[in-house]
């Protein structure tokens, strides 16, 4: 039996697209989601193991770890997609904001990597941990200071865990800028955002999926971050 891939925060947008890609390619998937949408019912009917997990709850990692160890003897990969796009302008309680950003983007992946290492090491092939970080790791962000700092922490964890888990587990990161717009984004915002990259397009989730597949198929890439930013660093 093929070992499943765990994808966190996969109930919508990029995470959902990743799940649907693996389902279409007959790769078993375990996913976590916070809010139950109708698509969860569809995924369950397709055989996806969907777990409602709110990583703001203190026992979330313990419950997830226990369930995985009960149902599975190995994992092919863990993809850390769970994220929260939050900023100082919307949160006057900066202490809480910083703690929340660090928890979801750094502490939870840190805990899960350690808790699930034995399942990843039990995979019949080389296994993978993939962190979804952000383009702002390189630049910082004056409007999303805590968010950028937490994603930078996750980027650093990539190198630490790559060293710790080699050679059985490869650990890498993917750092996107714009991938897909939100439904409520207006045309002015879209035009401004598109102008920030050299390529000037909304690339779609396939760009992240292609990067994930590259890492999963590689026998040699570890401790690296793949930028998926359309040349934004050169603008």
From TrEMBL:
Keyword Nucleus: no
Molecular function terms from GO: oxidoreductase activity
Pfam families, A to Z: adh_short_C2
Keywords linked to the UniProt accession: NADP, One-carbon metabolism, Oxidoreductase
EC code(s) of this entry: 1.5.1.3, 1.5.1.50
Catalysed transformations (reactions): (6S)-5,6,7,8-tetrahydrofolate + NADP(+) = 7,8-dihydrofolate + NADPH + H(+); 7,8-dihydromonapterin + NADPH + H(+) = 5,6,7,8-tetrahydromonapterin + NADP(+)
Regions annotated as coiled coil: none
Enzyme class: oxidoreductase
PROSITE patterns in the record: ADH_SHORT (PS00061)
UniProt function note: Catalyzes the reduction of dihydromonapterin to tetrahydromonapterin. Also has lower activity with dihydrofolate.
Entry similarity comment: Belongs to the short-chain dehydrogenases/reductases (SDR) family. FolM subfamily.
Entry protein name: Dihydromonapterin reductase
Gene this protein is translated from: folM
């Amino acid at each position: 039996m093929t070992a499943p891939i765990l994808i966190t925060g996969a109930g919508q947008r990029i995470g959902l697209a990743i799940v649907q890609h693996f389902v279409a390619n007959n790769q078993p998937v375990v996913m976590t989601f916070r809010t139950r949408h109708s698509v969860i019912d569809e995924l369950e009917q397709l055989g996806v193991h969907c777990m409602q997990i709110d990583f703001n709850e203190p026992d979330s990692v313990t419950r997830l770890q226990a369930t995985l160890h009960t149902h599975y003897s190995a994992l092919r990969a863990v993809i850390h997609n769970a994220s929260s796009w939050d900023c100082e302008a919307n949160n006057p309680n900066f202490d809480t904001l910083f703690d929340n950003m660090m928890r979801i983007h750094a502490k939870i992946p840190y805990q899960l990597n350690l808790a699930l290492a034995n399942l990843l090491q039990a995979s019949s092939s080389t296994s993978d941990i993939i962190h979804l970080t952000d383009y702002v790791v390189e630049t910082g962000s004056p409007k999303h200071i805590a968010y950028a700092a937490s994603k930078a922490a996750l980027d650093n964890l990539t190198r630490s865990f790559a060293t710790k888990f080699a050679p059985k587990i490869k650990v890498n990161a993917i750092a996107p800028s714009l991938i897909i717009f939100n439904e409520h984004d207006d045309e002015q915002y879209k035009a401004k955002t598109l102008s920030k990259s050299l390529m000037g397009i909304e690339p779609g989730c396939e760009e992240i999926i292609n990067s994930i597949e590259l890492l999963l198929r590689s026998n040699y890439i570890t401790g690296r971050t793949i930028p998926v930013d359309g040349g934004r660093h050169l603008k």
